[in-house]
Structure formats: structure tokens, C-alpha cells
Amino acid sequence: xxxxxxxxxxxxxxxxxxYSQEIYLKTGKNTTKxxxxxxxNNPEISYRSGSGEFYEIGYLFNLKNQKLTYSIALTYNxxxxxxxxxxxxxxxxxxxxxxxxxxxxQLYKSTGIEVIILGGVNTATIVSGDQFINTSYFDIKxxxxxxxxxxxxxxxxxxxxxISEKISxxxxxxxxxxxxxxxxxxxxxxxxxxxxxFGIHIPxxxxxxxxxxxxxxxxxx
Length: 221
Known about the structure:
Layout: H1 2-14, E1 20-37, E2 46-62, E3 68-85, E4 88-110, E5 113-133, E6 136-139, E7 149-164, E8 167-180, E9 188-205, H2 207-217
Antiparallel strand pairs: 1-2, 1-9, 2-3, 3-4, 4-5, 5-6, 5-7, 7-8, 8-9
């Protein structure tokens, strides 16, 4: 159902009367920390951050104010972490598929360079999850702390470099905190994630805006 809604939004955007559009692909590294909470929480457990990959493919367009943009994307995130307690080692490896919506503001623009600040939310669900305790393995995909719907508000910034009118590159950073809305038990998990991004952007110029610009520049004979 979530995938069908995403495809419908992409289709509606493609036929809407917009100023300019682009498709983009981003990848990079997640640095993730798990924050478990339960009635029997043990403060002696030492949790450590883990690293993982992320992939994002999306569709972006400018709003009427050309400094403002909106994007929607399909995301795949690896959220990994580890811990140790009483000589035991714990490792979590989880993968989430989500839909991400971002609003961006152009803070600065110069020749070939653009600085952007952004905020948004990712709605995701787990697709696979493993826990390792020393040499023992457990499937945690259906555990209440991980399964269901996860909401991930985020803030970030990026630097965009225009190679040409047909392609641009970006470097970015996002910080987010993810909450599981489906978990109603006393045992909860909050995921704090720092994301370092590299992006490739391909602009798609809307014919309506180009036609309007052309008509303003060309006088009839």
C-alpha cells in the first residue's frame, strides 16, 4: 500500500504545473545509536554506535518561490548498533524501507554553488533485522521494538555543485530521531541517526515555464 501511494504521488507530480523539477539519487553512511528503554533498564549496559549504508531515489520540484523546494523519495536505510554487558557482546543489524518528504530552502547561491537547509520526515517499516549475542543469532523483524511504522523527523543541510545544466552533485548531512508508533509496550526503542550523503541530480525543465520565458523574450513579427 505504501509503495502504491508513492507511485501515485510521483505520477501526479509529473503532470502538475511546476516551475522546475529534478530526479536524484543519494547514497552514503549512517551512524546510528540505539536508545532502549524498559521498566528493567540497566544503566550498566554500554551502547555503541554502528555504521550502515543508505540509498535514496527521489523527485524534487521548486515551488512558486524559487528558493523553496519539495521532494519525495523512496529510501533504504541500514540502522546498526552494538552493546556490551557482563562479558557479552550484542549487535543489531536492521534494514528499513521508507517514504521521505523534505522541504528545502536555498540559503545561499553563487556561480555553480548552492547551499540548502532542509527539514522533513521519513515514514518507514523494517524489512529485515538480526540480533547477535556473542555467537547466537536471532531474527528480530517481528519484535515489537522494531516492527510496525517508524516516524523519523530530520533536519539537515547540503552543498550542491552544478557541473552543467544537465547534472549536479551534492554533499549533505542529516540528523534524525526515529520513533516506533506501533509499539504500545513499556519496552521502547529510539533510533538516533547521523547521515552523510553524496548525491547526483538530473534536472528536468518543465515545458510550461520554458514556454512562458520564451514568450516574454520573443516579440511577434
